[in-house]
Every structure is written in structure tokens, then in C-alpha cells.
Amino acid sequence: MNYKMIAYIIGQIVRVEGVLLLLPLATALIYGENTMAAFLIPSLAAIVIGTLMTLKKPANTSIFARDGFVTVGLSWIILSLIGALPFSISGEIPSYVDAFFETVSGFTTTGATILKSVEGLSQGMYFWRSFTHWIGGMGVLVFVLAILPQADTRSVKLMHVMRAEVPGPKVGKLVSKISRTAQIMYGIYIGLTFLQVIFLLAGGMPFFDSLLNSFATAGTGGFGIWNTSIAYYDSAYVDWVIGVFMLLFGVNFNLYYFILIGHAAEVFRSEELRWYLAIVGGATALIAFDIRGIFGNVADSVRYAFFQVSSIITTTGFTTADFDTWPALSKIILVLLMFCGACAGSTGGGIKVGRMLLLIKTGLREIKYMLHPRAVVSIKVEGKPAEPDTIRSASSYLVVYMMIFIVSLFFIEMIEECDLVTGFTAVAACFNNIGPGLGAVGPSGGFAGFTALSKLILSFNMLAGRLEIFPLLLLFSPSTWRRY
Amino acid sequence: MRIIIAGCGKVGELLTSYISREGHDVIVIDTDPQIIEDIVNEYDVMGIVGNCGSNSVLLEAGADGADLIIAVTASDELNIFCCMVAGKLGVKHSIARVRNPEYTEQMVFMRGEFGLSMAVNPEYDAAEEILRIIQFPAAIKIDTFAKGRVDLAEVRIDDGHPLCGRRLAELGGFYGVNILVCAVRRGDEVAIPSGDFTLEPGDVIHITASHSELVNFFKKLGIVTKRIRSVMIIGGGKIAFFLSRMLCEVGIKVKIVESDPERAAQLADLLPSAMVINGDGTDGDILIEEGIDDVDASVSLTGIDEENIIISMFAGTRRVDKVITKINHLNVMKMLSSIGLECIVSPKNISANNILRYLRGLGNTDGSSVQTLYKIVDGSAEALEFIASENFEALGVPIKDMKLKKNLLLACIIRQDKIIYPHGGDTIEAGDSVIVVTKSSGEALRDLGEILE
Fold first, then answer.
1. Is B59 at the interface with chain A, CB within 8 A?
2. Confidence grade of residue B144 (pLDDT, cut at 50, 70, 90)
3. Do B12 and B111 belong together in one domain?
């Protein structure tokens, strides 16, 4: 493995994080808070260390799939380790494990919190907490790819890095140059975020709240800045704006690019998008009908049902109502949506609609094979025949996904001895990067009651969920580190 | 520029590697998903799986706004067709690989009617290169500039070679000839040498000089270069056909060994003045029977690299003066020089050079376009010929006052028929042909103005 090159790329990322830490520092300055040191120390340290690591570009810049995966896995862990420092230095989250959990939850856009009460943090910390969502949503390495000088991206084979970080069963480029692709993706990302801020401001939300809620929506993260999350604003306008934007950020970003270059017709031909919208529509209708008794009128039940469906399927995790108190049918629909997840190539987590489609089609094909053993059946995705490799990797992804899920659940239950609903949804909410689950970890609860060990297991789950398991799993495989 | 490469065989991949490194937007099309996957992992390009002759695939590749399409699939017809479709979709320039001699002959028609900008024929180009080597056996490889007025020769310095241990600055004075060593490969490193550079055994040097000076130089060195009068060609493919026709024209005796009786008969038909033998070229007895011991040069041109290597090694043991080997897979090149096979011809490489030259010509701004381009030293350096236009900003400026880029050498200036080896006081005038040698690590040179800082 090319350790020098891995260190070089990680150095770039550490340095970028150091620079990004200056933003919450500025926030603290504006609000005249005394948390400046908590941001300044990690920021300076990261910039200095990152600069030292990138001082000399290695002569041999070739990296392969393995190096790419290791780079991505390691950078996310290092990123979270550094990102947790401000919380623990300032003493606002005294335990470092708690701070680490909170930061991982931020970067992986989960939105699960260990804070009993969110209210009471300083503004700088609020900013950093929500900002980690925004950075993690599109990916730090993609950001580095976008700002790295072209000469660098041309000589280094970075496709492996990009593939490891962007979610979905198959990652393609928008344009021929990887740096340009990354720039376009970030451009769309920034544009949509900006648009949401404008919409929220128009609804009378204060600027600081608009910005932070937009960060959390864009990354499909879900850190609220009030204990009651979005319910605090108690405004139908805000609910609909955030609900729709969550849905938008759960769409494959390639489709926005098609719209930008004037191929809007192709967008609606996308099979994944149609299913995604159909699932959202169906689930909203079912839940709205199911909860009609709680809210009394149709408009409100649709509003709350839509918001929650949009929030869960995109794996954001904002709440406008305590859905733990909803009827069983609504709860099970929400739990199923947790696993379904958003579209590939979006900022959302979960298994992804596209991969689900592929798996279901593979399953149906198997039934056909049973009936007609000599049948030749091709599986089509987006109108094109799926390659055997794509099908194989989607199937094995599901298997590994289930294995990790079961093992994590086993350990959580063993350590916490909590009820099954709490344990199951805690793992599901972390692994799929959603945030709130049901029971003790429901919208009104949190992860504060868990032991440090459980928090680390759940942190692993969050990272594994965000990076689609393999980059992180490879770090723990001995053969990764063997020379041959 | 946005460039589409259709077909990702060996030429396609070589072009992808050269062009993507020059910073262009490259889109490759191939029908094999595995090949596309590998290419996209290896280079910063976009890959599309599909048939390059299809309208929708070309549109997906962005043909409506592309500047150039290079069609290098295995089929001539598909290449031509692909270029026609792409041309109609709005691609500005198109290059097709056309190998069938019957199509090559109607190139003028195709250019007019189909809108093809250029056709490359690797086999024909390879034959031309082999002919040059046969006509000048002292060099490993020989390329020409300025319509043949200047040669670029590649020469290997072995142990005991008269040039061993010489400083480059003394060469001119010592031998009284006008030559210039413009690039040296030592191990894996390539250097653009200054006068203080001392040659060591194992170096491979590139010399620019006029043809007569080069002959003179080798005479002075004491390397007797017997003229080659007879050639044995093993393998009767397209290159063999083109090469035999050229050799017969200059009066060199040709014997072709071809194992397929039908092809042998066809060759005998087409080439009345060449002797065609129907036999297996890998059979040593047949080669001995046909006189490999007495022939001046052998050229191994079968379709299989391994066979070519073995035949050439065999020819080497039978003391053939000049052994030339055709290699398709470029990755074996490095191994070959260590087993003593020096003269390697790779048709793919030659085509890639030609296409690259055309591409650089498209990008230039001041009209001093690239006339000739050779990638030398395994592609790590290049030699280019420009014609200085009126717009060149340093016309008439003495070279010592020009701020030239690093790792760049002005090898020759050709003014009318005079060859000038530039010194500090010389100038570049409009209309001059200028030969520049540069390491290819930096930005690619597209016009003469870019040699300046």
C-alpha cells in the first residue's frame, strides 16, 4: 500500500478541516462568546499538522482501490476525532466519548444526540454541530477533490477515493474530469442550501436558525437546535419548506445536473426517482389516514405525516411530532422507511431506493428461475441491463449490512439490556444515519443513557452506514494491511 | 478541448493516457464494460459503454459539443461510420483508423464526402518507419523532420563504443561533424543534456543532424555500416505488404515467409518482385534453408509478439546485421532491451504520435502549428517541429536573451536549406522550421510561443 500517498491525502483533509473550524470561531467572535480557544486550538493544530503532512508530495502517487478505501475510512475517523475537540475543550460536552459520538453523528449526517437538552450550548457550538452535517453530507473528500489543483487530480488516480465516499450502488462522473465533477456537485449543493435559507428567512425564521436548519437539511443530518426540533417553530410554512427540501436533498444529484444542462425530460424518466416519489406519496397517504384521529383535520395530518415520511426516508431525522405515540401501523411504516433510505448519489443514507429496486428485481428473477430453470432473464435498471458485477455487489452489500446490523444489535442488547424496540431502532437509526428511533431513543428521548461502549459501537455503525460499510470494514480486515 | 475516443484497444488506451495527461476533457466509448471500468479507474476520463456508431451513445458522450473524435475500433467500417455520424452531430474534427489499403486509397474522396479530417494507418506508418531503419542501420530508430532535411536518430552506447566517456561538448571538435545530442536516457531517467554531460555505457542517445552529417559521423566513429541489400520478412500481414512494396521500389531484395498458403499466394500476386515462401516462420530449419545466415536484415512481423521475439532472437544468433521486431504490447518493451533486441517497432505508438500531432495543431493559437511530433524515450520526452509564424513574439531575438522554459532544448533551426545548431547569438526568423526537444512532464507545447517562460 502507498502509505505516503495516503498520508498526503489525509493531510490535505486535516488541513481543510482546520480551515473549516475557523467558521465556528468566527461565529463565537460575532456573538462575543468565550469559546474561542476551544475552536482556535484544534484549528491551528489541524492546519499545522495538515500542512506538515502535505509539505512534500510523494514521488509515487499511484493509488489503487485498496488505498482509496483505506484513505476514506481513516480520514473519516480522524476527521471525527479532531471535530470532537471543540466540544470537550470547551467543556460543553465534558466526556470525550460523548463529544466523539456527537461529532460522528454530525459528520455522518445522522443527527443522533447524547445531549439530554440541546438548548444551552453556545452559538459557536451550535454552528459547528450543524455545520458538520453540511460538510459530511456531500463528503469531505469530494470537497478536497473540488479544491485540489488540477495538476494534482490529473496525476493521481482519485476515482477510487470518490467511489468510496459517494453513496450508491454505482458511482459515475458527470463530466470527464473528476475535479470538475466534484465542483459541479458542490455547486448544486451550495445552491440548494442557499435557496432553502432564503425560503426559511421569508417565513420569518431568524437568520441563525435558518442557516443551521438548512445545513442540517442539506446534509440530511437532523440536528435540531431546539429540544422539540422543528416542532418548536410550530409553523405549517416551515414544516412544508423543510419537508420539501429534505426530499430534494434525497434525490440523486446527477439529476439536478441534467436539469442544469437542459435535459429535464430525462430526470422524470429516472426509475429510482419515480419509485422514491411513489414511496413517499404512498407512505404519506397511509400515515395521514392512520393518524387522522390525533390531529383532527386532513390538512394537519397530511402535514405531519409528510414531514415525518420525508424526514425518515431521506434519513434526516427532524421531527415535528412525537411519532413514538402514533399508532403501530404508522410506526412500522416509518421503521421500514428507515431501511429503505433515499436515492443513490444523494446526501441521504440507508440502503438506497436504487439498490432496493435492484435487489427486489433479483429476487423476482430467482422466482422465475425456479419456475423456468432454463429461462434467460435480464435485469434492467434505468432501462439498461444491469451488469452482473452491480447485482453481485448489491446482494453482498445487503448480506454484510444484515450481519453488521445483527451483531451490533446483539452487543447493544447485551450491554444495555434495554427493550427490543429501543435497541433495534437505536441501531437502525444510527446505521441508516437517521437519528431518532422509537422507545427510549424516540423523538422525545436520546442516546444520553447509553454506556460509553455502546456509544462507540453506534459510532462505528454511523460511520459504516455513511461510507456504505466497506471502507470502514476494510480497516479491520488483516489482509488490508498485509503486504501481499 | 472535449475529445471523444471511440474504441479502447491498445491505441485507444495509449491515446487516452497521452491526451488526458495534457488536460483535455476525454470521453471514451467501448462496448466492453470491463475495459471501460479499468480505463476510468486508471485515468481521469469519463467512460461510456456502447456502440460508438450509434447516435444515442455519441450524444451521451456529448458529441454535439465535442471538438474531436478519434475512432480507433478494430473495424475500419465502424471507424469511418462513427466519424460520419459524429460529424453530422456536430463534432468539429474526426480522425479514423483505416487500415484496409483499398479504403486508404480513397482518402481524398472520404475527406470531401464524409468529412473525415484525417485517417491513420498504423501498418503503413510502421512500414515507413522500418524502411527508414533499414536505410540507416546504425541507429536503433530514425525519424525525420522538415520533410526529411533533418534526422532524429536513436543510438545505444554499448561498452566499448567509441563515444563512451566523451563529454558532449567535445563531440563536434573531436569528430569535426555538426551533430547535436538532444536527449539521453540513462536507466529510467531521461535528461536533456548540456555540454558537460558525459556519456556512459548503457545510455541511449537521440541525435539530430542532417542525413549526410549523420552518415559522416558514424563513418568517423569507425562504425562501419554496410548498406542493407537483402531483407527477410517473417509474417505476411499488412505491414509486410506495405514494407515489401517500399523495399522493392528502392531496389532491396525481399523474401517473405508466410505460413498461410492463401495469403502467401495473394502476396505473390500483389508483389511480383518479392520472393514469397509458404512456410512456418517459427521453424528454424525453414529460415536457415531460405538463407537467414546470408541476409542483411530480418523483420519479424507475425501477429504474435512472442513469436516475433523468438524469431528475432534466433536471427540474432545467426548473425543477421539488423534485426527488427514488431511489438504490439507496449508493456514488454522494457524487458526487450535487456535481452538484446534493440530495434522495436510499434505500430500503435506511431499512430498515437500522428494523432497527437494533429491534436496539438488544433489547439495552437498563433498559427505556428506543430508540424511533426515524436514521443521519444518511452514517451517521457518529445521532439516537435514548428514553423515560426509572423506572430512569434521573439522573432529576431538572440537565443541567449530568450527566457526559455526549463527542460527544453532548441535542437535545430532550419532556414531555407541551411541547418543551424542554435548558439547564443542565433535568432529565429519567420518561416524557419524550429525543432524543440522537451521533457513531457510539464504542460504540452502547442505552438512555438509556448517555449518561452
1. no
2. confident
3. yes
